[in-house]
Structures are given as C-alpha cells and as structure tokens.
Amino acid sequence: MTLRLILGSDEAGVDYKDQILADLRQDPRVGEIIDIGVNRADEDFNKPYPYIGIAAGELIRDGRADRAILFCGTGLGVAISANKVEGIRAATAHDSFSVERSVLSNNCQILTMGQRVIGLELARRLAKEWIGYTFDPSSASAAKVQVLEDFEGAAAATGGA
Ligand code: RB5
C-alpha cells in the first residue's frame, strides 16, 4: 500500500520542504503528496508555523492523509503545533535511530525536522528512511501508545480535550 503523505513548512523550512517534496514525488512508496505550503509565491508566505502543524494534524485526524513530514527552523514549533490535534503524535528527529523509533516505538504519524539544525543531505536521507517504517500493532510498543490514546479518550469524554 502506498502512503498519502503531507509535506509542509513555514518560511524557515521551505527550502528543505521543497527539496524533499521533489525527492518523494519520485518515490514509489508514496502514492499521493499534499503540499500544504508555505510556498514562495504565497501571499501568506510568512504564515506562523502553528498553522502548518495544526493543518497537517487535522488532515491526518480526518483521514485525508496517512503521514506528514514538516519543517520549520528547528522542527520544534511544527511538532508542538501538530501535537495539539487529538490523536496526533509528532516528533522532531534529526538522527537515524530516533527517526526509526518515532514510528516503531511511538507510532508517530508526523516527523518534523529543522532547516536551521541539520544539513540538507541528512534531512533527505532521514525522510526516505522514515517513510520506510511501519508501526507493528502486535509489538510491545502498542500497549504504551495505547496509554496515550486512552488518556485522550478519557479527556475527550469529560470535555477536557
Ligand atoms: C521562525 O519563525 C522559527 O521560529 C520557526 O521556524 C520555528 O523554528 C519555531 O519553532
């Protein structure tokens, strides 16, 4: 099954977003890519990073995409923003092991990276690695992720989320 993937960034991550978008458009593991911006021609090119993180999270929550790779200056702002959306697990990762574990341990739907933190070639490599991992629901990690889902479910039931 091919992935429906979102790519997004604020202005501080747009160069990496555009390069990795181009890479993944050639990748047979990716069936569809949604570019949620920003793009240099946009009137709102300087849109603050939370809009990008939240938009990606909502598209995944609503079943319109499977996963997202997001960029900002550090990767932190878009991750924090996406994590505000119910059911979303986003992680900033700039090394191969964390990229792997973000899926296999944490079942993250979103990877974020910082254009001001790592080199472009490493970011391109990590993006390709990340889309190759699939969470195993029969693994020991599943019960741990379930704790998060139960917490969110309980909060929603009491109006707290
Ligand atoms: C630039 O606005 C920078 O603060 C942003 O891209 C990001 O690094 C925030 O987390």
Task: Please explain how this structure is put together.
The structure is a single chain. This protein has one domain: Sugar-phosphate isomerase, RpiB/LacA/LacB (Ribose 5-phosphate Isomerase B, Chain: A), CATH 3.40.1400. Helices cover 43% and strands 17% of the residues. It contains 6 helices and 5 strands. The protein has helices at 14-25, 49-61, 76-82, 96-104, 120-131, 141-157, and strands at 3-9, 30-35, 67-72, 90-92, 110-114. Strand 1, helix 1 and strand 2 form a beta-alpha-beta unit. Helix 1 packs across helix 5, helix 2 packs across helix 3 (76-82) and helix 4 (96-104) runs parallel beside helix 5. The relative contact order is 0.17. The structure holds D-ribose. Belongs to the LacAB/RpiB family. GO terms for molecular function: isomerase activity. It comes from Arthrobacter mangrovi. InterPro entries: Rib-5-P_Isoase_Actino, RpiB_LacA_LacB, RpiB_LacA_LacB_sf, SPI_LacAB/RpiB.
Summarize, please:
With 161 residues, the chain is α/β, with parallel strands linked by helices. The protein contains 6 helices and 5 strands; from the N terminus they run βαβαβαβαβαα. 35% of the residues are buried.
Helix content: 40-55%
**Helix-strand makeup class:** alpha/beta
Count of alpha/pi helices: 6
Largest sheet: 5 strands, parallel
Number of strands: 5
Order of H and E elements: EHEHEHEHEHH
What percentage of the residues does DSSP assign to strands (E)?
Answer: 15-25%
CATH class categorisation: Alpha Beta
Query: If you consult CATH, what is the topology?
Result: Ribose 5-phosphate Isomerase B, Chain: A
Spatially, the strands of the biggest sheet line up as 2-1-3-5-4
Assigned CATH architecture:
3-Layer(aba) Sandwich
The tally of domains stands at 1
* Ligands present: D-ribose
Task: Flag low-confidence runs.
Answer: none
Inertia-based shape: globular
Q: CATH homologous superfamily, by name?
A: Sugar-phosphate isomerase, RpiB/LacA/LacB
Query: What is the averaged pLDDT score?
Result: 97
Gyration radius over CA: 15 Å
Q: Tell me the distance between the termini.
A: 32 Å
